[in-house]
Every structure is written in C-alpha cells, then in structure tokens.
Design brief:
Elements lengths: L2 H29 L20 H5 L7 H24 L6 E4 L7 E4 H13 L4 E11 L2 E10 L5 H19 L7 E7 L9
Parallel strand pairs: 4-5
Antiparallel strand pairs: 1-2, 3-4
Amino acid sequence: MSTVLKIVNRVLIGLVGLVLVFLGGSVLAIGLSAPAPSWWIHQGPHDVLLTVAERTRWRDAGWWWPAVLAVLAALVLLALWWLIAVLRRRRLAEVLVDTGDGAGALLRGRALQGVLAAETDDLDGVAHAHVQLTGRRNAPEVRVRLLVEPHVDPGTALHHFTTRALAHARDSAGLAALPAKVRLRGVRHRAERVS
C-alpha cells in the first residue's frame, strides 16, 4: 500500500470514528436525560428514531423495505470487504527474474522469503528473522523483523544483514535493487548481576 493510500485510509478511519463517537455519545447523553438542541433528531430519552408515521409511510410500496434491506446489506458487505483489505497483508506471490532472453522466469515469493529468512537466521547474533516480500513482481521489496541477541550491536546486525543475506538474495534473483525495511528488536533477558 502506498504512503498516500495509507494516509487516506487513516484519515477516513479517523473521520468515521469521530462521527460514530459523536453520534453514539449524543444518543447516550440524551438517553441519560441531557438537554438536546432543537435541531437534533432525538429530543428526549423516550423519543424514537422513526415515528410510527415514518415507519408506515411506505408500507403500501412493496419495494421499500426490500430496497432498504438491500442497501444496508450492501453497506455491511462493503465494510467487511474494506476491513479484510485493510487487515490482509499483501504478500508477493512471485518475482520476475530477468533471464536475459527477454522472456524472464518466475520465482516463487515464498521461496525467496524462506531462503532470505534462513540465511538471516544464520547470521551471528540474530535470534530470529521474519521476512515478508511485498511490492510488485518486477520491483519487489522486503520487510524484515530481526530479533537480535543482547550482546549484538544493532548497527553491526543491520550491516551483516544488508551486506550478506540481502545482497545474496538480490544477486541470486538477478534484481537491480531490493529495498528493505528492517525493524530490530532485542531478545528479552534477565538483568545480569554485576559483582
């Protein structure tokens, strides 16, 4: 997901959240007998959202309630699709490798992830590495979370990752560049006693 889409997504989530908090808070406040403004849709704790006249206004039109239910169902499905799209991490299924003949070859993304994770795990001081391949198949990117041992300098661990494991993956796949975002975290350990 690009940076602009992430910003738009966060702004939309924030706006929807603010509207829902405002509406829910106002309904709760009026339900607890707080004074309501004259223009508000609820006027008191015993007021209803739709009056009997409003609910029965379209009763004779057979299309009204099915249309309302269809629109609400479509909104729920759209919201669920959006939620799944936001929560699902985009993994790259395959990488296009330039073979020099113009046709190219396809390398499985999980294979490249697995090899990169295994080689990173073998680096000195790295307790565990989690690798995720993202981007496009002709311009892949890597997201890495490194769990490093307490005795390791983070700069050294990052240098070893970029010059060894990442460089090997880039060269073996024949890629001109393989950008990486790396997050480092230290292994939790007990404090050592100094005597």
